[in-house]
Amino acid sequence: MRISWNQLIENIMQCDHCGLGKGCIQKVPGQGDIHAPLMLIGEGPGEQEDKQGLAFVGPAGQLLTRMLAAIQLPRERVYICNVVKCRPPGNRQPSPEEMQACIGHLRAQTALIRPKVILLLGATAVSAVLGPEYRITRCHGQWFERKGVWIIATYHPSALLRDESKKRDAWEDLKRVKAKLSELGLYQDLFEGENK
Ligand code: URA
User: Fold this and answer.
1) Ligand 1 atom having least distance to the Cα of 48
2) Any residues with CB less than 8 A from the CB of 18 and at least 6 apart, and which?
3) Rounded to the nearest whole angstrom, what is the distance from the C-alpha of residue 150 to the centroid of ligand 1?
4) Ligand 1 atom 7, closest CA
5) Domain-by-domain residue ranges, the chain?
6) 0.85 cut: is pTM over it?
7) Under CATH, what is the fold of the domain 5-190?
8) Cβ neighbours of residue 114 closer than 8 Å, sequence gap 6 or more
9) Does residue 97 or residue 187 have the better pLDDT?
10) What is the pLDDT of residues 71-100, one digit of tens each?
């Protein structure tokens, strides 16, 4: 049975399934349009996200906003969240145990949103959603269909900030997202700007 949004947020806020909750300022469930056909999944909150309680609002988030704008997609029209809802200390990668402890929240979130397309941002999201055997370097830009949902991965915006040479691939991946949304007849609803 699907839980309600209120119940989901309550579950996240009360969660003590792993130790991350003790070390963070606040939980970051995610935000955006809860009816969005496109859901974005990152790794976990960083410093700014932990302070503000919102996903992708730091430097990586600012780049993400520009990446979405480059395909004429306003970020408030999509839903953005992370694999783990609490900031790992020092922004380290969440451990497999921490990801496992948090995966129920992500599954409940996905069941409520029922996105048509999911964009995975980086290796942690790829591992959590597609499986630990998948590598971002190999699988980015490829489509996977799981239970009627189209899933694609691209590099995490933080990785793009560290290594500019990945930006070209990320741009190709984003264009595929736009094409898929268009193919599914969702383009008119989501996009704005000259190219509509
Ligand atoms: N990196 C992430 O993976 N998620 C955020 O919300 C911010 C940075």
Assistant:
1) 7
2) 86, 97, 98, 101, 102
3) 22
4) 56
5) 5-190
6) yes
7) Uracil-DNA Glycosylase, subunit E (3.40.470)
8) none
9) 97
10) 999 999 999 999 999 999 999 999 999 999
